[in-house]
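R.M. (postdoc): so does anyone remember the format we settled on? I'll just put the structure tokens first.
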């Protein structure tokens, strides 16, 4: 993901990718965000959720808002009621899903990778689900999944985490066997060996 981010050509593209990977918003949800859908101080964006069609708040990273601010400062504000994401060539018009895919394709071609917009949402979900400070129910709320079992799919053990935990397990001293007082040591030896 870091290489892909470095492959983005402008602040608009960096902001888009950072919003996707930090908020977990779906591609179409994020592309519909207008100026009135941005809560700068609360670090929230409001999206029309895919399933419910309800306008819902979604938190995003401070970096996403920084890049969005830089993009809007350089390219100007959109017309009222228009999405913030616009084309950069010719007359500015709303950025489409296909144009956003093309942004990723150009970076993929440069890097020899095959990232998709859904991969960004998946990355956000895996990162959130793997964060011990967030409960699965909280991740479900952020991702706006209707069912907890959908969110549970993102609970995956990473090899790096397993390695560290196994090393800790192997180096832990073995527990010493203890037996309740009153038993003859010879009886314990006869039953349990030793």
């Amino acid at each position: 993901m870091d290489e892909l981010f470095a492959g983005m050509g402008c602040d608009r593209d960096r902001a888009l990718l950072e919003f996707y990977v930090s908020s977990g918003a779906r591609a179409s949800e994020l592309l519909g965000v207008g100026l009135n859908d941005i809560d700068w101080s609360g670090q929230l964006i409001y999206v029309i959720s895919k399933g419910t069609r309800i306008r819902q708040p979604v938190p995003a990273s401070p970096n996403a808002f920084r890049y969005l601010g830089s993009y809007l400062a350089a390219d100007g504000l959109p017309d009222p009621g228009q999405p913030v994401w616009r084309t950069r060539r010719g007359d500015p018009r709303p950025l489409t899903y296909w144009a956003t895919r093309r942004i990723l394709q150009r970076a993929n071609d440069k890097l020899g990778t095959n990232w998709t917009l859904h991969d960004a949402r998946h990355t956000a979900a895996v990162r959130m689900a793997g964060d011990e400070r967030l409960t699965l129910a909280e991740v479900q709320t952020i991702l706006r999944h209707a069912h907890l079992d959908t969110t549970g799919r993102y609970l995956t053990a990473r090899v790096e985490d397993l390695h560290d935990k196994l090393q800790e397990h192997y180096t832990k001293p073995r527990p010493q066997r203890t037996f309740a007082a009153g038993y003859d040591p010879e009886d314990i030896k006869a039953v349990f060996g030793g």
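R.M.: ...and that's the designed sequence above, right after the tokens. Also worth knowing: Strands lie at 38-39, 44-48, 55-59. The CA atoms of residues 28 and 97 lie 7 Å apart.
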